[in-house]
Amino acid sequence: MTRGSSQRIEQRRNEIIDACEALYQTKGFREVTIKDISQETSFSRPSIYNYFETKEEIFLALLTREYDGWTQKLQQVSRQKGPWERERFAQALAHTLDGQEIMLKIQTMNLYEIEENSRRECLVSFKRSFYQAMCAFDDCLGTYLPQMEEQTRQEIRFAFFPFLYGLYAYAHPTQKQLDVMEEVGIPSAQMTIEELAGHCILRLLPEKRGGK
C-alpha cells in the first residue's frame, strides 16, 4: 500500500468518524444508523463497509480517538515540573477531562454493546489506546509523588478508572431523572464533570509527608 493510499484511507475513516460524532451530539446511540452516517459523508453507505463492518466499530473508533486525545492532555500534565500542591494537582488532572464528554458519554451509555459488536482487531486497537491513557495517568501520579509505591498507584487507578464509567451520567442527568429524584428525595450532584473528577481525585491522592 502506497503512502498516498494510506492517507486516503485514513482521511475517509476520519470523515466517517467525524460524521458519527456530529450525529451523536443530537441523537442517541440506537438512533444513529449507517445510513445517517453516510448522508453526512461524501460517499455511499456501501462504501462505509470498506472501512467498518458495523456501526459499533465506528463508535469504537471514535472512542479510541477520544482516548488518544485524553492521553495527550495527561502527558502535558506529567511533563510539568513539580513540586505539586495536592489541590492544584487534583484540579490539573480533572481539567484534562474538559472537552471529553463524548468519551465519557460513550463509555457510560454504550460501551458494552459496542465492544460486543466489534471485531477483535478493532477492540485490540481501542484497548491499546485505553492502556496508553492508563500509563499516562500513572506518569502523572509519579510527577505528583515520585516515591509513590506501585501498590498505591494501582489502588488509585482501580478506583478512578471505574469512576469514569459513571461520571457522565452524574454530571448530565436527564430532566426525567431529575424529576424522579426530586420526588423520592434523592439529592442531585449539581456538579460539572471537572468538579466531580477533582473531588474524586483529591480524596484518592495520598498526602505528601512533610506537608503539601
TrEMBL record:
Residues 33-52 bind DNA. Coiled coil: none annotated. The keyword Transport does not apply. It comes from the Bacteria. Residues 10-70 form the HTH tetR-type domain. Keywords: DNA-binding. InterPro entries: Homeodomain-like_sf, HTH-type_Tx_Regulator, HTH_TetR, TetR_C_34. This is TetR/AcrR family transcriptional regulator. It comes from Amedibacillus dolichus. The lineage of its organism: Bacteria, Bacillati, Bacillota, Erysipelotrichia, Erysipelotrichales.
